[in-house]
Amino acid sequence: MNIGILGAGHGGLAMAADLTLAGQNIKLSAVSGHDKNIKILKALGNIHINGVTSIGNAPFDIKTNFVCEDIKETINFADIIMIVTPAFAQDVYNELIINHGKKGQIVVFPCGGFSALNFYNELKIHGRENDFIVGETASLIYTTKITGPAEILIKSIKNRVQFSALPENRADYALEVLNKIYPQFYKAENVWQTSFNNPSSILHTVTTLLNMSRIEMFGSYKNSFFDITPSVARVMEKLDKERLEIAKHFYSNPLSLNQIMCSLYNLKTENIYETIKSIKAYTIQRSPEDMTHRYVSEDIPYSLVPIASLGRKLNLKTTNMDSIINIACMCNDKNYWANGRTADKLGFSEIKVVETV
């Protein structure tokens, strides 16, 4: 099976290295301006992997023959295309696939953000919605970090990760194909569920914004467990309650943030504070370097804004969620409400809302 990975950041490098180790045929590419790591891998010829992999504990050193500087070649090569970039960087890759992708390819966004729905709407505009299966997962399967030039640390590979796809009648086929690569993927009810279940929307945003002063005083500093405290966890739970109230209008039996995290990391804990403190992959971390980090600039406009916007359409109060979004808008002097993926941009009027009792 040929897998094209677009995006050479933390997730893209981890995926390319791990799947190469697992014996898959890989090409890794990135667009000009975001191809620093591509050039490094090409020049050095090897990548060093620490942590865990699909074939066992690292370290491993492997050749970077999977690097491809021609992104159109990578798209043409692939049976499966993984777009492993922040949501704010997806547009250029979406356009390349629309213009150069082949009929029958499976395109996967490995981390929610309403990305599958957004891309499927773009395909409709160009009359190509029947040419691809568009999938997404609720979370990136890897907890990972680039630790140096051509060096990646894979802290963990998640236990179970939800997957959904459009058109919905092709989701089972897509999952069957992807399970040959990632048996951890299991079927979600729909693409709304995978985006609502992206834990980053609350985990990243709340912990970053409530540690804002320390980040701005010290820059990227070493910490543990996202510097979560019981009070920070209570804020997260308040947002999560609003998320659940909205989510139940789009799919049945939505999971709490705590249930999602326990499923991802195979835990049995009682609350989100206890859960986060139990995740070994979070033992040693570095904070964002500033407030423009993707924990804010991606997870606010591409996860929290659409959820809150959908809530407004349903006349549901999102007082706590709005507060976090507004703090992000103020601290970065950005209107994330206008710039984000709103209900209208996601085609809210065309969806079927689940009837609730």
Q: How is the topology of this model organized?
A:
Elements: E1 2-6, H1 10-21, E2 25-29, H2 36-44, E3 46-53, E4 56-57, E5 60-63, H3 71-77, E6 80-83, H4 90-100, E7 106-109, H5 115-125, E8 133-137, E9 142-148, E10 151-157, E11 161-166, H6 171-178, E12 185-187, H7 191-196, H8 200-209, H9 212-218, E13 222-223, H10 230-247, H11 257-265, H12 272-276, E14 285-286, H13 294-297, H14 299-313, H15 319-332, H16 336-339
Helix pairs in contact: 8-10, 8-14, 10-14, 14-15
Descriptive key words:
single chain, 357 residues, alpha/beta, Rossmann fold, N-(1-d-carboxylethyl)-l-norvaline Dehydrogenase, domain 2, 7-stranded mixed beta sheet, 5-stranded mixed beta sheet, 16 helices, 14 strands, globular
> If helices are DSSP runs of H or I spanning 4 or more residues, what is the number of helices?
16
Give the strand tally: 14
Radius of gyration from the alpha-carbon trace, in angstroms? 19 Å
Residue-averaged pLDDT, rounded?
Answer: 96
Number of domains: 2
Low-confidence stretches: none
Neighbour order of strands in the largest sheet: 2-1-6-7-8-11-12
Q: Classify the helix fraction into a percent range.
A: 40-55%
CATH homology group of the largest domain: NAD(P)-binding Rossmann-like Domain
Strand content range: 15-25%
Task: Give a verbal description of the structure.
The protein is built from 16 helices and 14 strands. With 357 residues, it is of the alpha/beta class. The chain folds into two domains: 2-196, NAD(P)-binding Rossmann-like Domain (Rossmann fold), CATH 3.40.50.720; 200-345, N-(1-d-carboxylethyl)-l-norvaline Dehydrogenase, domain 2. A seven-stranded mixed β-sheet has the order 2-1-6-7-8-11-12, with helices on both faces. Helix 1 (10-21) links the parallel strand 1 and strand 2 (25-29). The longest helix has 18 residues, at 230-247.
